[in-house]
Amino acid sequence: QHYYITNNLSKMANAQASPRKMPKLDPAADVKADTNGDSQDILEEIDSIQTSLDCLNDQASDEILKVEQKYNMLRKPHYKKRSDLIAKIPDFWLNTFMNHPQIAALLDETDEEVLRYMTQLSVEETEDIRSGYKIIFEFKTNPFFENSQLVKEFTMSESGEMGTSETKINWKQGMALTEKSGDKGKEKVGGKRDKPGDDPPSFFSWFEDNSMGGDEVGEVIKDDIWANPMQYYLDLDEDEELEDDEDQDAEDEVEGEDDDGAGEGEEEE
Fold it and tell me: Tens digit of pLDDT for each residue in 186-202?
């Protein structure tokens, strides 16, 4: 709008000045105006406006954080109820992990056996949300390790890097899955499995990796699996859901046409 107003005013000014010749601009005068500090004043004013915008952005971030904190509290009882129901379904988390394309790439057959003993998964964000979160895995008694709970915590450092700490896995004798995997737990999410003949990576190699840096697996579990595990347990995707909806709409249309035909037949009789 500002552009069109300015443009129209310019046209009006040109139209009014058309009967006489416009004076030529003096480049020296422009230089003199600059030296008078006009540009500096404009830059200072722009900087002042930007400072105000930055303050508003900070204020918006604080208010958004408060909203997130409020709804995190409201979600907790729903998460608790969902977890209690999930615990009644055998192999729920095993099937959920296996059906997730990125997490499945980290699982070998032995990992799958371990995950049969997994009963609960939960994610807890820090109170301020920004500084990190932790993922809690709960297991029933199993032949692989002594722990009933494994916790991996992600903490944002002052420098902005994500560091991790985790529960030490107390492997039972001869059952340490990570000894054969070496550093393979550091593979990227969704990465290809090793070449034939190599030991496949173990999911628990990722768990024991406490190196600094972003953690894709943790983000996937927190933002994808934990947010809606049902879609992976049932192995649903958006395309399948869309096809199901279209099939249902088609069936409804056919039934509607049949009803209309039946009604017309009754009227003719």
Answer: 445 545 444 444 555 68
